Amino acid sequence: GCEGGPGRTCARGRGGDRVIRWLRGLFPVRREERGMVLMLYVLLAVTVVANWIGKVGSNSIFIKKVGVTSLPYAYVLAPIVLLLASTLIFSLVGRLRRRELFIWYIGVVAVLSIATYAAMDLGVLDYWWAYVFAQVVKDTVYLVFWIYVGNLFDSEQSKRIFPLFAGALLIGKIAGGLLSTSLAPIIHSENFMAAQAAGFAVAFVTILIYRKRLPEGEGAIVSGKVRPQSIGERVRGSVDGYRAVASDGLLRPFGLSIFLWYFLMQIGNYLFTYSLDSATAGAATVQGAEDAYTLLYASGFTIGSVIPLGLQPSLTGVPPRPRTERRVIGEECER
Predict the structure, then answer these.
(1) Binning pLDDT at 50, 70 and 90, where does residue 333 land?
(2) Is residue 220's pLDDT more than 50?
């Protein structure tokens, strides 16, 4: 039986198979896919790490030098800039190959990060810009990445590979939080934007070197399709889209739920930020207050990213084998 010598081997075999299947579920990529998937995974993780460091630093500087009471105004300004940036990105989707869009996006963010860091001496104006810029990059880096990879894989590949990329987002946030807490006492929060610039510069050079290994993706230049050219036409198109959502009985409550979720999330984020600002108000210097705020802010969001990362393998891993197959294995062991 399974308790005897052969059975023990059989039990070990079953246990070893489960471990192998679990490990494969963490990285469900076939041999011919490994090079491209690994490259995309690294690029996404590096850009998320870099942006997270820049976001933590810009948030700390804004809170300590502009004031937490100005944060609600930044909450209004950031989505407006994000809308303009998203409109520009989508206007380029049909005019550039998606690989080129991905490459140039990384390069532009690297240049803007360098300019933002160099302009820190301008004072309050640059603090506002740095905060909004980091927030917009946080959302658009995901957007541009998914625009590119969304057309590289078929449905079967997407089910296996896309959860892996989702894990890269969490890994990037966790690594960025840990690096932020480690770098704060060394280079201080005011230099975190330079770290973001360095990270995007590394990603830009890497993707240029290995450019030919990545497919172009869809998104050829469209010549026959009429596209809105003026800002007025684009605004009217957006308004028509909102009207379509508002008139649909299913989409209307869905859109309202998203609005309420975002609204409540911003309130919670403000209360969290206000509490951190109060907790670090007693520092001897402004720089000390910024670094103390960075440590608490990065630690809180890092812990928040560890939880979903731990849940992801159980939610997106390889499904268990059918019960009938396990019963056959057990019968073979008894024999």
Answers:
(1) very low
(2) no
